[in-house]
User: Fold these one by one.
Assistant:
Number 1:
Amino acid sequence: MKKTVTICFANNKGGSGKSTTCGNVGYYLAQQGKKVLLLDGDMQLNLSLSFFSEEDVLAMAQGQANLYHAVRDQKDLKDYIVHTPYENLDLIPSSTLMSGIEYELFTKWQRELILRKCLASIKASGEYDYILMDAPPTLGGWAMNLLCASDWLLIPVEASPWGLFGLANMFEFFSTVRQISPELGLLGIVVTKVNERKNYFRQTMDVLRGMENVYTFESYIKVDASIEWAQDASQPVGAFRKGCRSAAEYEALAKEIDARANA
Ligand SMILES: Nc1ncnc2c1ncn2[C@@H]1O[C@H](COP(=O)(O)OP(=O)(O)O)[C@@H](O)[C@H]1O
Ligand SMILES: [Mg+2]
């Protein structure tokens, strides 16, 4: 039976490319023959919007068949899966009510482990090669749930001074989560929204590559307007404009993630 690898894309800095990277890596892993389940863990619904129209996403978010209701009522998430238009690629949609999930979980027994329990039967079935989770830009009890349900943390970082500054919080949170879930590993850092003409990019890479015990992926993602056009069309960039630069970069990144997560 397959082992399902679960990866959480998290960084408390907003706009660092979490949702974009989670969706596009998921798309390419699926294209590369892996069976992938995406979990939209953010009330901003961005991961869901990467694959479905605004109308469809709002309908899912406002109904009952979404992550919020499943986690609040501690249901088996296998009953909340929807198929995306792409082969091998499924999604658990989010809800705008996710903003209140911490409140709902507060009084529950083992409240950090509720998502892990909701995902247990999907993981045990071995149906998916990967479960990729998109985290919100906050480091609280819900992010803790996402990370406690993951084998790996992947941190997308924007190549900017403040992008690097925020990393310290992320590392501290990672250490805290490991006290509850010691098996969680740091898969690595992916640098996003790179402008190679800026010297700052070189400095960012030097700082990251100089860090001990932290892997920085060889593949990085440059600024590319195709990403925004693809998001406007509710499509992953590889489906929207197959030959564009960021599509090739995400394809390479997906291969690198696959190799590293299964090493
Ligand atoms: N490589 C890129 N080139 C251009 N725009 C990008 C790129 N990656 C992300 N973006 C844009 O940056 C914004 C933030 O990205 P997003 O993935 O939503 O970050 P996060 O989920 O960390 O908040 C979005 O508007 C997205 O369209
Ligand atoms: Mg996001």
Number 2:
Amino acid sequence: MTLREAQTAVDRWIKEYGVRYFSELTNMACLTEEVGELARVIARKYGDQSFKESENTSLGEEMADVLWVLLCLANQTGTDLGEELRRSFEKKTKRDCNRHINNPKLK
Ligand SMILES: [Mg+2]
């Protein structure tokens, strides 16, 4: 699935089952909440904390939740995430093409 296809699929789902998009501010709060849930799984899976019984342990599920809300925000703000990601690759390649290669901490 491309990012364009994902944006279209989320838009269809929202119109069919979600009635309408939550406001941009609400979705920003939801995005922050989902990032926190992802951080919680990572802290327990790779950090020093342990999972409680019956706690969600799925990294992929939380990543998908983050992506879902980001796709909603992209749709409601008229953002083409595929194009923006392409630009981001271009920007990072121009800016950082030697930076990481020359970083002795990464060797
Ligand atoms: Mg979640």
Number 3:
Amino acid sequence: MIPMQPATRRMIAADNFAPTEGACSCGCGLLPSDSIILAIQALVLALSREYDGRVRVLVQGGVRCQSHHQAVYAQVNAARAKQGLPPKKAPADSRHLPPSLDALDVRMEVRGDSGRWMPIPLDIVAMWARKLGCFGGIGLTEYQQDGRDIVHLDARPGRLVTW
Ligand SMILES: [Zn+2]
């Protein structure tokens, strides 16, 4: 049984996040850490300045309890099998998991003059994440190889890790 974070920790929820955004999608109540929410909020701000428009983040993968983590990897491996790729072992130390809970997989969009939301190229998102210096892990190319249009961002401490 994994304890939920106390509600008070959520009081610094950032502008662009609903209180339950990035929560484990199995409904167990696990929430992402403030560190990753604030880092992504900074990225939204930087991209808003770069594009001079409203930017939003679409969370494609939030934090996960162990049982949901296994389910996600079962899906990933089914997709890999279709492409004739070997299965990937679900990493036990993923930042999406407790105790870290500081990873989110995202896409980002900017609102064009017509009012339509347009995707920001993922390599631009990853480049800005790197430039800002508030992320510890940035994953892009491995997911592209899997045909998944996401950037993995996490707030691990220490030297930047990219893949
Ligand atoms: Zn869960």
Number 4:
Amino acid sequence: MGYSKFRRTKNRANLIAFSISGTKSKLIYRIKKIIMNVPKIVFRYSWIYDQNCKEWARISKKDIKSYPSSRKIVNYIKSVEKMWNKISGKILHELSKVTSLKWKSKIIHCYVVGKCVPFSDPLTLPLYEKKDYFIDVLIHELIHQLFSQNWKETRKAWKYIQRKYKNESHETQIHIPLHAVHSHIYMKFFNVERLERDFKAVSKIPDYRKSWEIVKRKGYEKIMQEFVRRI
Ligand SMILES: [Zn+2]
């Protein structure tokens, strides 16, 4: 075989090897996506939405002078996005696995504003000084999202919670399974200190405090089991 023919053959072999590995990686990506089937959380800044939040903050007599600037929010988004992207796959997958509920949307937009009370739909979070706390609040709101995306599937389980904790407020009731699932996430991927920080931070709100106390007393595994068994 002449040198040039050898080189051509070698090049072709490389090309085939390359296309096989390309197909393989595409295939692995597709399999991963099918197995994981988790949504992408897309962080957004909306100036008009943020202005409305600023107005609500003013009406509810919050400190407006310290309201973060657009630039600060946009930079904050960039940095929490990086933190979140490292762990998002395993967290979203685990939430689905442990509750036996499917994520029903491919994309969830998460609006980040200067100040507000966080809520799950449209998913909206304010800036928190500690960025890992932002991640914890995001997971809390995503558990709400997963439950509300599966309201049909969870109907029986919620009826059971309402019956079992009939003397508790609605807010306490809905946060009992939620804090149980979140405890599992804290213990599997983070640590007990993060869980305790969450407990302390929401303890100012009596309904939230009560639900955490119930979860701690009964044990999160037991509450999760009782809830998931009825899905
Ligand atoms: Zn909540």
